[in-house]
What we know:
Elements: H1 17-23, H2 28-55, H3 60-77, E1 85-86, H4 92-123, H5 127-130, H6 135-158, H7 170-179, H8 186-205, H9 211-225, H10 233-237, H11 254-286, H12 292-308, E2 315-316, H13 318-326, H14 333-353, H15 358-372, H16 375-384, H17 386-401, H18 404-426, E3 428-432, H19 437-441, E4 444-450, H20 455-469, E5 474-481, H21 487-502, E6 506-510, H22 514-522, E7 530-533
Parallel strand pairs: 4-5, 5-6, 6-7
Antiparallel strand pairs: 1-2, 3-4
Domain STAS: 434-539
Transmembrane segments: 35-56, 63-84, 90-120, 132-154, 174-200, 212-234, 254-282, 294-319, 339-369
Membrane topology: Multi-pass membrane protein
Amino acid sequence: MTHASDPAQPAAEFLPKLVTTLREGYRATDLRADALAGLTVAIVALPLSMAIAIASGVGPERGLFTTIIGGFLVSALGGSRYQIGGPAGAFIVLVAACVGQIGLPGLLLATILSGLMLAALGLFRLGTYIRFIPYPVTVGFTAGIAVIIFSSQIKDLLGLTLPGKEPSDILHKIPALWAARSTLTPAALAVAAGTIAVIVGVKRWKPQAPNMLIAVVLASVAAAVLHMPVETIFTRFGALPRVPPAPSLPPMGVQAVLAALPWAISFTLLGAIESLLSAVVADGMSGRRHRPNAELLAQGVANVGSALFGGICVTGTIARTATNVRAGSRGPVSGMLHAVFVLVFLLVAAPLAGFIPLAALAGVLAVVAWNMVEREAVWQLLRISRADAVVLLVTFLLVVFRDLSEGIVVGFALSGIVFIHRMSDATTVDHAAPEIEGEAANGQIVYHLHGPWFFGAAARLGALLDQVAESRSVFVVDFTDVPLIDSSGAHAMEMLARKLHRKGGRLFLIGTRPDVRHALHKAGVHDPLARFVPNLAAV
């Protein structure tokens, strides 16, 4: 297996999976399977793309543009065989906040900058490391996003009318919604409840059926036939355009770039994590392996392309990708066709979308939010490990009440501290009692180290070794079971060697691996401070 940084094949990790699929031999039967899978995913993507765009504070057509342009590029250029790209629920909070602060042109510029950053992450081969996000962090931020998505839909779910702009902060949003409870629209509540009931019912009755599309269509027909007083896509946004706009650049002055840059960084961080998590899910379902750096490069190109055509942030979408795999996809062609099918819908049936009640799309997102929460994973993490439970809860609370990026960063830092603590506990020092009484009389003592000798272990166990060395003239440390050593561990051993040398004692190191010995040498652990010997008999 070739590592991601293996120079023997420098370009292989950027090769799109589309090329690999075509090289393997692509037949008519594969095309038919991909066409069916692409149509299935497109049916799922249609209501979701519009719902996510509306919840993000932009028009529904921009969600469709994102699916058409971004989804096509992600599949055509990506490093995952089954990845489906498009607007994602995880971005709703960030995109809505971005639009509220710097407007739609600023959002498009931030999306372009994010695309360039994602492409750079891929070109610098950092995709291999971005995947190492701790599990409690992913579960916590996903649950936090779900709560925020649901809270953002309460207004349309209940048909509430707010006197001013809806607050984006959940601490101010909930009181504002409660204050407007007297404006509840029974028709909107009925449409939302009916949509959720149909989605759940169809899922149980016929799991393979496009339950969300069926629910939205039935809600639209019922609202139109019964003349229900509910807000629709047409009444809020007007008629949808039949084609994406011509590509154009947003204003790119220095001030505009500086204003968009913080948002672009947040989009990049979340986009990289979300897309690679989605690719990992696809790997687990299909038994394939994705190319993380190629995937990030494709995500970057897709975000630039989406913004040029008026779309919003693109990332890999876990639910649609899983649908693609389950629908029998043979490769990236299904994802490309899913984008084509959405384009056909826009060309042929765009006016019909105007009849969709916003309460129905809010119901769709309420179900999406519910499904995003990994309830079994949350319960297991809370039960099994107190440390992981703290990481999960801190991440969740920061995402909900502070900021999504802050939640990820702090959660990752806490996970790092937990990991260091666990690794330091795994590193032990065992005293090997001398077999011959004379050895003890001569002041010789042997200690075996077990586990990685890094800064966490060196800080905890270094004092013990240092204390023992006070009364011994011959001190032997067995490194046989030490797989690695960092600069802190090597420095701690160098200080021990110098202390023994000043007191006229001798330090012997046995069983050191070549890389461990090299690190110790660079830290100054060598003659005359210490001697490396092959075994205890050579001391």
